[in-house]
Amino acid sequence: MKGQYRYRQKRWHVFRLTRRYPSLCTYCGCSFTPTGKRQRTRDHVVPRIHGGRNRLSNLVLACAACNHRKGTMSTEAFLASPWLAARIKLVQDEKKGA
Questions:
Q1: 27 C-beta neighbours (distance < 10 Å), count
Q2: pTM
Q3: What is the pLDDT of residue 17?
Q4: How far is CA 84 from the centre of its chain?
Q5: Whole-angstrom distance between the N-terminal and C-terminal Cα of the chain?
Q6: Tens digits of per-residue pLDDT, 17-39?
Q7: How many CB atoms lie within 10 A of CB 61?
Q8: Is the separation of the CB atoms in 66 and 84 below 8 Å?
Q9: Rounded Cα gap, residues 91 and 87, in angstroms
C-alpha cells in the first residue's frame, strides 16, 4: 500500500509541476521529449542528501541531462557551472536554427 501511495504522489507532483511551469527545462530552457536526454524529470532544488524534502516547493521540472549533471550540487553552484552555460548556448542555437 505504501508503494502505491508514493507512485500516486509522484504522478500528482508531476501533474502539478506541469501546470506550474511551461513544458521547458527550468535550467537550460530546452523543450521536453518523451525519451532521451530531454526527457522530463523532477529535480529537487535542495538535494535530498542535503536535507531537501519531496515537497512541491522543492521540486522543479528539468530535462534528464540537467538533472543528471546537477546531481547533488546546490542550485547556485549548478547555475554557475560552465557545463550549463554551454548547454544553454546549444539550446538557444538550436532554437534559432529551427
A1: 24
A2: 0.81
A3: 82
A4: 13
A5: 47
A6: 888 877 899 999 999 988 888 99
A7: 22
A8: yes
A9: 6
Positions of the chain with pLDDT under 50: 1
Q: For the chain, give the percent of residues with pLDDT over 70.
A: 87
The Cβ of residue 91 has, within 10 Å, a number of other Cβ atoms equal to: 19
Structural Rg of the chain based on CA atoms: 14
Residues in Cβ contact with 43 at an 8 Å cutoff, skipping those fewer than 6 apart: 26, 27, 59, 60, 61, 62, 66, 67, 70
For the chain, give the secondary structure using H, E and C.
Answer: CHHHHHHHHHHHHHHHHHHHCCCECCCCCCECECCHHHEEEEEECCCHHHCCCCCHHHEEEEEHHHHHHHCCCCHHHHHCCHHHHHHHHHHHHHHHHC
